[in-house]
UniProtKB/TrEMBL annotation:
PROSITE patterns xref list: DHAK (PS51481), POLYPRENYL_SYNTHASE_1 (PS00723)
GO CC, alphabetical: cytosol
Protein known as: Dihydroxyacetone kinase
GO BP, sorted A to Z: glycerol catabolic process
Presence of the UniProt keyword Kinase in the record: yes
Ranges of residues in domain DhaK: 10-330
Gene3D superfamilies: Dihydroxyacetone kinase, domain 1, Dihydroxyacetone kinase, domain 2
Domain of life: Bacteria
Length: 332
């Protein structure tokens, strides 16, 4: 097997140099203090609830780059696939605060929950900043809803949370509507090749040349099914069934669809998959009102994708379609 290749400098500086690059490419939209794991918007609107997002590095652009008007006031990043430290979470909460409290959104992983909770408690004690948390837990590979992991559906949850805050909702209102969006979001992922960790050069899991895995986590956690390679149409059918049956989504429901590139999948493959997904959703009587395809929540150079369905209401559609500005995603 050939040696893993990554275009980088010292592995010890991976996160810092990534954040430096993010700030540099933002053309003044973002700022960061030297050595800090916190990136903040330079266009924070005072008097409104501030959104904070965060998680481990290695999933770029999620969560760290989704900062700017209509999205987060600040983000905090941990090491590769590791939760941010509590003191960095506290710093990020203080950076995100605009005088009306802070809504915190991140994936439902044990380390993140522990460290974000600790940072939020300290920020309230030291700086009197109230916060509320919404956990992204959209992965249908886990039966227990409360224990589900946060994966590609974070794209819609973060988008809605940012719009709710920008709209001037109270902290309680913003948390409640973001939780409704989260509950209406369902995702499943598939991979045909594992990603390579840049700091170790090792793959996050092993797959045979003729194998694929359905339901794996963003860090290579074991999925629900490992099988021989299937055609694009066969994979799409299996994934649509798993996601659409989970809520469940019913004929007549309005939905947004997100196809998320996990890192190394071609646009050709994603379009071939979506063509079948659209056909299958139409057969179920689901009305697709919005479709997004992109690489917004990656796992390094993992080859595969995730499929997200978001059940829309008028309220949720308005939040998803609201204007926003950030390095990886801008609309309106």
């Amino acid at each position: 097997m050939s040696q893993a290749k990554k275009i980088m400098n010292d592995p010890e500086n991976l996160v810092d140099e990534t954040l430096d690059g993010l700030v540099a490419i933002s053309n003044g939209l973002l700022a960061r203090e030297p050595g800090s794991r916190v990136v903040r918007s330079t266009k924070i609107e005072q008097g409104k609830v501030g959104l904070l997002v965060g998680g481990g590095s290695g999933h770029e652009p999620m969560y760290g780059a989704f900062v700017g008007p209509g999205l987060a006031n600040a983000s905090v990043s941990g090491d590769i696939f590791a939760a941010p430290a509590p003191q960095h979470v506290q710093e990020a909460i203080e950076a995100a605060d605009a005088g009306a409290g802070v809504l915190i959104v991140y994936g439902n992983y044990a380390g993140d929950v522990m460290n974000f909770d600790m940072g939020a408690e300290t920020a309230e004690e030291d700086s009197d900043i109230e916060s509320k948390t919404v956990l992204v837990r959209d992965d249908v590979a886990t039966d227990d809803y409360e224990g589900r992991r946060g994966i590609g559906g974070a794209f819609y949850v973060v988008k809605a949370a940012g719009a709710a805050c920008a709209k001037g909702m109270s902290l309680e209102e913003a948390a409640e509507v973001t939780e409704r969006v989260q509950y209406n979001t369902r995702t499943i992922g598939v991979a045909v090749r594992a990603g390579i960790l840049p700091d170790t050069g090792k793959r996050t899991f092993e797959l045979g040349d003729d194998e694929m895995e359905i339901g794996l986590g963003m860090h290579g956690e074991v999925g629900v099914e490992r099988s021989k390679m299937m055609t694009a149409d066969e994979v799409a059918k299996k994934m649509v069934d798993m996601v659409a049956d989970d809520l469940p989504y019913e004929s007549g429901d309005r939905v947004a669809v997100y196809i998320n590139n996990l890192g190394a999948t071609t646009q050709m493959e994603l379009l071939i998959v979506y063509r079948k997904v659209a056909e299958l959703l139409a057969e179920r009587g689901l009305k697709v009102e919005r479709t997004d395809i992109g690489a917004h929540f990656t796992s390094q150079d993992m080859a595969g994708f995730s499929l997200t369905l978001l059940k829309l209401t008028d309220e949720i559609a308005e939040l998803i379609d609201a204007p926003c500005e950030s390095v990886p995603f801008t609309q309106g």
